[in-house]
Amino acid sequence: MDWDAFFTLHRDLPREGPGGPEDVAWALATAGTRGAVRVCDAGCGPGADTETLAEALPEAEIEAIELHAPFAAAAAARCARFGPRVTARAGSMAELEGPYDLIWCAGALYFLGVTEGLTAWRPALAPGGRVAFSEPVLLGGPEPQAVRDFWEEYPAITDEAGIRERIAAAGYRILGTRVITGAAWEAYYAPMEARIADLRGGEVTPAPEAALRDGEREIAAWRAAPDRIAYLLAVVAPE
Q1: pLDDT tens digits for 96-119?
Q2: Residue 217 lies in a domain
Q3: Is the dihedral of CA 199, 78, 48, 155 positive or negative?
């Protein structure tokens, strides 16, 4: 992949994956996370969920970590209004220190692997700590070709039962799950569509045509099966 072209396309997008404030609210309620807690947004992207976490948890200390330094800088700028209780830095989510009462990870745990990531994060959890993460999921039954095409580059994808097996293999129990489809994905792809139009129109820094076509193909693949292309949001705790 041409990462320079990828980041040119994704620069200034409000978020780097499907989701919304309602998903954060559900996860916090399911985890029982409230009050003066310490939270990590692992793989925070440009900070959309970091901001939502900070708004939902006004007494919390929140640390956002992102491997891509420009995204970390964007998250820091986005959350500057919260003052020193919310920080964002460039770093690896594979090396969390904690202790955290909640680790939130939207659509990024697959970089480590569900079992591998949860295992690595266990020492970073405070007593009673929880992890909330979203992972690509197949919804079961015959899968439309559009779904198979969309997830072609992620052959490790499974149905919910497979995700549950990977969670159990890390020694965690499941507190709740929620399927993310439809509007949460539109919230990701609609700004990307507008970004592609701006790049094509020369209104922002040009990007290679191949990167724009890749983005258009991804959006078109999602629009071919918006009710079948999904993430599973899971809230889990160590056994």
Answers
A1: 999 999 999 999 999 999 999 999
A2: no
A3: positive
